[in-house]
């Protein structure tokens, strides 16, 4: 009895039944059935049908071979692997491995490698460790200084009770621990996580589905993008716009020369027998069919190249493809192979004399198909004639002409055999493809020029990448001339650039690759393995590489790249699993948005660091000086006040500065190298400059007679606390820019989080000062004191302008080494 169960319930030892069209869910051994052929392209990358034998049949064949002691030949195997598709036949098979132990499961598990630390993560870890050490040292020094001062004070009298001593030391410890809490950047992971989470959420609206969180910031520093052509740079909406039947009959969708015939006029200009032969080749040697789109409208479904040819047949009013497929049985099919760049179908056919022949229709890369032909279709003589040197040269010129117009060229040919198989079968019982094209005996039917228009905005997106210092390379299976032409339209190929074919590139030595790669812009006639080699070599040279891919075979390249982009529409599940980001619209322009978001994340982290280090330095120094100078070892900023400052510095600042949206000006700079410092010199200028300003004004308020209050006055200490906090609030606005540009208010209204947090921090400070009382050790202030705090805080903005206007090279003496000077100042 056969029952249906979920694939999740399959166990080892079960016997499953498979029919054509089924996807194999688990590994097993073929035990019963007939004529079984599988598509194992998920494992091998090639879509050739693989014949399978049952276990008993394999055992019998192996015994026969052993007994005959003849030459050992390869026999079909009985193993059915998960991920394969059943093309022909039916079978029952015994399950031998499931889940992560199956072939498909092991492949998927292999993709779950431990992610490498990104450059930003490594720098942040080092910085956090350094700041934690410095904060701990500052706390230890403060503890020693306050304890020494406390015990020195005993010369004026020792406390009467031990509890008093313990309480005094506890107060010192509280201040010290608070300083360490403020100094240690515990808000740094929060800022990074917030920036990445916010970016991934917003990137989805830009058609980037982020699967690996770290890919966001890595993409910001990408130095090169290796992009597919079809569907990514182009629309993948293919149409026949030109072509040639035989060697000389030219047609075009929009004729530009008198020698060309309009496609609509072909039925009147081409003999019916010749047109029927060409239509037969299109219909029979194709897997596309008629279906419906999302709107329920009729359309052709399948490979886009094949649907373009079927549409051409409809345009020339040829016989319906389904009628031909029903009339003529198919003997054998040879699916497209990236190795031979062709596909073929063998059909049983009755010629005009009612004689049964076996006709082979071949379709593929036009120059390859032409090289396999010895004759050509003659429209005038109504039969094939010898392919002369002049014919060959003429067709080659036609192919080159189409290629320079960025058209994908496709050649059609056929051949008749009196019997089948022509030379017997191989050990596996199949007719090798080589037997079909032996002796170059094909008849050339014609070449089609198929247009795949560029996606809207692709040239602009490529220019944006180049403006951002990102090298764009096109990796395609098209021939060299077509690839070069399309790359030129996109703006990828430029004068002086290198265009190379995959097989040539693959044979280069590492040293030769290193010489070619800086100029390589287009890799044509390439395979997924060529793409993997390219990505691997670029990474070894220090590039941060992004790559696009849609096929199962693209998995290794996608996984090897720093950022792998898979196609959301055309991509296979394996490609998506191997990728870091999925392009939901398969559009190259979405990669540019990913670069912008990546740089935005990097900038967000740097903005937060600039703000946090300013607070750290100011708070630690101010607390240290005021505590040591105080007669009772009390800091002007109490522990509770410092915790409020810490809340502003960590949580609120992280939210405010990590949520700035990206702007096009992010693409006006080159990507940062891996060795670039996390804190640039411009940032250090702002950090130290603002810290000096804040320390100066708070110490002046505290120890001068400006306010005419004693140092221990609660009013004075409240004013100092209030001023210090407003300096931080207004400095948040300063930290929105980490470059030398003066407009710190640029695009500020686009960040609702920043506006809200700025208001919350201001209102929170007002409530704490006016109503915090004993809890915060403050007292309500009058209007004059509020004016002092707010005005001094506002001075952070003009001080920021002054600091930005100081040229970086003024500080060149701090970096005597030219490499260090270039690293931090960007100058030699």
Automatic annotation (TrEMBL):
Function in brief: Catalyzes the hydrolysis of ATP coupled with the transport of calcium.
PANTHER family: CALCIUM-TRANSPORTING ATPASE, CATION TRANSPORTING ATPASE
A GO CC term attached to the entry: plasma membrane
Subcellular location: Membrane; Vacuole membrane
Listed transmembrane segments: 131-152, 172-199, 613-630, 636-658, 679-702, 753-779, 785-806
Pfam families: Cation_ATPase (PF13246), Cation_ATPase_C (PF00689), E1-E2_ATPase (PF00122)
UniProt topology in membrane: Multi-pass membrane protein
PROSITE patterns assigned: ATPASE_E1_E2
Domain Cation-transporting P-type ATPase C-terminal, chain residue ranges per copy: 635-805
EC number annotated for this UniProt entry: 7.2.2.10
Keywords carried by this UniProt record: ATP-binding, Calcium, Calcium transport, Ion transport, Magnesium, Membrane, Metal-binding, Nucleotide-binding, Translocase, Transmembrane, Transmembrane helix, Transport, Vacuole
Main location: membrane
Coiled coil: none
Protein's recorded name: Calcium-transporting ATPase
Domain P-type ATPase A, first and last residues per copy: 4-109
Keyword field contains Translocase: yes
Single biological process term from Gene Ontology: intracellular calcium ion homeostasis
SUPFAM superfamilies reported in the protein's UniProt record: Calcium ATPase, transduction domain A, Calcium ATPase, transmembrane domain M, HAD-like, Metal cation-transporting ATPase, ATP-binding domain N
GO MF annotation: an example: ATP binding
Catalysed reaction, written as an equation: Ca(2+)(in) + ATP + H2O = Ca(2+)(out) + ADP + phosphate + H(+)
InterPro entries the record matches: ATPase_P-typ_cation-transptr_C, ATPase_P-typ_cyto_dom_N, ATPase_P-typ_P_site, ATPase_P-typ_TM_dom_sf, ATPase_P-typ_transduc_dom_A_sf, ATPase_P-type_domA, HAD-like_sf, HAD_sf
Source lineage: Eukaryota, Fungi, Fungi incertae sedis, Mucoromycota, Mucoromycotina
